Each structure stands twice: as C-alpha cells, then as structure tokens.
Amino acid sequence: MESKKFLDVLIRDYMSVLNSGDYADVILRIGDDEHFKEFRAHSIVLRTRSPYFRTALSDRWAQKQDNVIIYEKPNILPEAFEVILKYIYSGVLDLKIHDVKVILNILVACKELCLLELFEYMQDYLLKNMSEAMQHNFSLVQNITSQHNNTFPKLKRFAKKIIDHNPHWRKLTYGMPSSNGESLIHLLYQ
C-alpha cells in the first residue's frame, strides 16, 4: 500500500485557522505597555507544541474571561512572538526579514517557551548567518548571555572568541558601564 503526505495542505489549513482566529480560545497579550499586540490562538495547538504553554494554559494557571483564556507575556517582543506563533502552527520558520535584535529576542523566547528544537537551531543560525551583525550589536549579545548565565553556551563561546581576538574589547562594549564590562570578563572566563 502506498502512502502520500499532504503536509503543505495541513500547514495551509492550520495557518488559515490561525490567521482567521476562528475557534480561538486564547488571547495572548504580548509585549509591554508601550509596545504590545494581541494574538488569537488555540489552546490545543499551543499546549501540543509547547511544554511551557501546556502548563501556563492549564486550568490551574490560566485566567479566563467568557471562556477565553487571557494570557499576558510582557517580556517578549510582539515581532518575535509572531514568528514563533507561525512556527508553532506550521513548523515553518521565516527569519528573512528580521534584524539581529528581533532574532536574538526569538532565541530568548524559544528557550522560555520550551521550544528546544527551535532554540538549538536559532543559536546555530545566528552564529552561521549573523555573526557580523552580532558583533555590531555586541552589547546586546553580552546582555543576553549575562542575564541568562549558562543558558546560551554557543553565544557565550562566540562572545569569548570576539574578546580573545580583539584586545580592545571595550570598544565593542561601548555604552556599557564598566561594571558590566568587568562582569562580562568574569562571565566569559568562569
């Protein structure tokens, strides 16, 4: 017996449901007060694809209004979450039009949302395709590695390599208070 895969049709249908908002039972308020966006989604899809949402949207934790779960996530950029939400529904990741700041935010969000396969891919993608952009945004890379300590080992090695090959590393950390520069050295060489 022969089998045929119709993954493109499946992806199209799931994306159609996401884009239309039909049957959505979750409103995700993403971003902070100054820059936020609401996304309508389906708890069954979110729970199936993300261990984080499996817990966060459970009856024990979720807040409901009129049978709709209202979930707020102020520490993720809406642009980053939109990419992640499309990935959750389709399994397709589109990074072509995003700058390194958004992509770094996607990386942090992937770790927090327990999307581990995407988290590993994102680190490799950044190092392979955006190393120059990360050098130009070195203070952002440093902030991420220091705030999350050992969460991003590949980025930490990248930052250490930049400092090892550039004796004038303080130029790379321009605008960073000297205490952050000192903590950077401690972080990278511990």
TL;DR of this structure?
The chain is built from eleven helices and four strands; from the N terminus they run αββααββαααααααα. It has 190 residues and is α+β, with helices and mostly antiparallel strands.
Describe the structure.
The protein is of the alpha+beta class. Helix content is 58%, strand content 11%. It has helices spanning 7-20, 43-49, 51-56, 78-90, 100-112, 116-129, 131-136, 138-147, 153-164, 169-172, 178-189, and strands spanning 26-31, 36-41, 63-65, 68-73. Strands 2-1-4-3 form a 4-stranded mixed β-sheet. Helix 4 (78-90) packs across helix 5, helix 5 (100-112) runs antiparallel to helix 6 and helix 9 crosses helix 11. 25% of the residues are buried. The model has no long low-confidence stretch (mean pLDDT 87).
Blueprint (SSEs and pairs):
Layout lengths: L6 H14 L5 E6 L4 E6 L1 H7 L1 H6 L6 E3 L2 E6 L4 H13 L9 H13 L3 H14 L1 H6 L1 H10 L5 H12 L4 H4 L5 H12 L1
Parallel strand pairs: 1-4
Antiparallel strand pairs: 1-2, 3-4
Helix pairs in contact: 4-5, 5-6, 8-9, 9-11
What's the overall average pLDDT, rounded? 87
Helix content: 55-70%
Main beta-sheet strand count, sense and barrel state: 4 strands, mixed
Main β-sheet, spatial strand arrangement: 2-1-4-3
Structural class by sheet pairing and helices: alpha+beta
Order of helices and strands: HEEHHEEHHHHHHHH
Through-space gap between termini: 58 Å
The number of helical runs is 11
- Strand fraction equals 5-15%
Radius of gyration: 19 Å
Tally the beta strands. Answer: 4
For this structure, the quaternary state is single chain
Low-confidence stretches: none
The shape, in one word, is globular
